[in-house]
Amino acid sequence: MLIxxxxxxxxxxxxxxxxxKTESTIWMSAVTFFTGLxxxxxxxxxxxxxxxxxxxxxxQGTIRLIYSINAIIMAVVYSSTPYCMLLYGLSYAKIIHKxxxxxxxxxxxxxxxxxxxFLPIKSSYLKTPEELxxxxxxxxxxxxxxxxxxxxxxxxxxxxxKSYMMKRYKLLTIIIVVPCFSYTILSNVILRAxxxxxxxRYFAILIPIQFMGFLYFAFKYGILGVRLKFHRYKFAFENxxxxxxxxxxxxxxxxxxxxxxxxFIKNFLLESRKYKNLNEIIGSSRISKHKNSLINIIxxxxxxxxxxxxxxxxxxxxxxxxxxxxxxxxxxxxxLGAVLVFKDITVYKKNLELIKQNQFQLIExxxxxxxSQLIGGVAHNLKTxxxxxxxxxxxxKRDTAKIYEYVQKNCSEVIDxxxxxxxxxxxxxxxxxxxxxxxxxxxxxxxxVTEYSEIAEGYFSIKELEEKITLLMAFEIxxxxxxFVKKLDVDLGQKxxxxxxxxxxxxxxxxxxxxxxSKEGNIITFGAYKEEKKVIFYIMNFGQKISEEIQRxxxxxxxxxxxKNGTGLGLYISKSIIKVRFNGDIYFETxxxxxxxxxxxxxxxxx
Length: 607
Fold this sequence. Notes:
59% of the residues lie in helices and 15% in strands. By secondary structure, it is an alpha+beta fold. It has four domains: 2-220, no CATH class; 233-344, 2-Layer Sandwich (Beta-Lactamase), CATH 3.30.450.20; 346-454; 457-607, Histidine kinase-like ATPase, C-terminal domain (Heat Shock Protein 90, 2-Layer Sandwich), CATH 3.30.565.
């Protein structure tokens, strides 16, 4: 009986350690515990008590007290074991709805309470044979139906099961559990109710056999919620969630937390500790604002309506995106809980954004290429009639001079004719200037849309640069009603190596940005000064300060100071042009009063 006691409590420990969260396993561990407690009382009375009586001569009063305590323990064992057997069968078969379990379990406690009230609590060693028979007959009235009910529910669960794997699992459970339950009914209650004593002692033989069967099936297939693994390469699967790259949290049907992995802790939790339910763990995490949405998709999963949602969190200055899906745990058409899987899609989102940006750039490039070809054609077509008009004006000028000379010699009204001819000459001069201006504008615009492959590297003066900027930005400045001030503290004859149109594009972009960042009537300053062998151009405006976050990323491809109205491409392209085509640098300074962008470019050394 000593071995039976040790094995039963070892069995209890294994069940609790391996599967303490499953209700049926908890009730089974209670059965093994109370059965082991009964074996312990036998060991205590027959071995320990006899040893102390013989060796130390314990008084009769002490012996009666110990027997009384032992009688109370045995009463607990006789009443609790059948109750736990019945509840094990009920929870295993899952035939009681979770909302009614507490009520039914409480009602089933009534015979157990009555047992303590009406049946005498007295040690079996102090009872007469007649008292023992009467006691077990009275005990059998409710304990035999309870234990038999536990067996019937196990068999019923096996019969109604349709899954082959679960059917095999339940058959193994019946093989291990039913013999123990049956022997307990027969030897501990029924036979003793008819006066057959000491049959229960064969329990000491049955328990080791059953325990060895439990170990074998637990290792081979898994049984009673236990799967033992002794192979060294299989231990990793005990904590398989820790090897999953996604963040996972497992919940029961009441949203109590069953388990969560290290990735969930790393990504979401603010502190690592034990959490009881979903409200508590979400409230202490970085995803607290998504609590209602998470609960909604969990509720939808109960009806097998599996949905997903996207969330994002900010950690250490970066934004991480996750796709969340609630996967229901359903067994025998009963909802047992859900597994929330948080899949990190940050890289996917960034790649998607990059693809969109690349598509935008390709579309913009194609649009600019088409515009370039259009403007180039328009400019070419316009310059021909403009030059023809200029030639025609020269002919008119020549013929007007001849007419004027003829009139002076042959006409009397010279004063009126002279006035008309002077007016004609004045207008032809004005029209000539207009045509020259239009020609310069067309040439400048055509240069701005020239493809990179067609750019001719050379050199140009600061004066030429200033003239083109003034020409192209005149309308923009006038429209903005800002005051445009030029402070060119540098020799305008100094030469710069490179393509003038590219630098005009950069400076015009900076001036446009300054105009858009200024209020009506503000001053926009375009200046330049020399520093060693370099010229530094600057554009200053008195707009708002650039935010700290934008400052760190302002020359990156997808960062803009204009919010939704900007693409962030202008400054990125400007920096590329200055560095690649001019071997220069572009930078800025900003404060609450003014913002200034600087473009530093090497000058050609004078011969």
